[in-house]
Specification:
Order of helices and strands: HEEEEE
Strand order of the largest sheet: 4-3-2-1-5
CATH architecture of the largest domain: Roll
Radius of gyration: 22 Å
CATH topology of the largest domain: SH3 type barrels
Structural class: alpha+beta
Amino acid sequence: MDGASAFAQLLPLILIFAIMYFLLIRPQQKRVKEHQKMVEALRRGDQVVTQGGLIGKVTKVKEDNELEVELAEGVRVRVVRNTVAQVLSKTEPSNS
């Protein structure tokens, strides 16, 4: 009987953990994977929004986790890829 009562006391904790996993942890992991795919698919000409709220067009994609983004004509900044929050418009891949 002691083993059954110990299990009965642990059951609510196990259920709480399972609920937390399915409501919080799993959706967060899915969002992280989607964001990583979006960041990896960035290309020259995409219009992006950074986490700081800056909107610009990608002018150069560098290999060392950086992008060059043009905020206004002649104003270019270097941005870390992971700080891109959203892609507003994608460019079509060129045939050449």
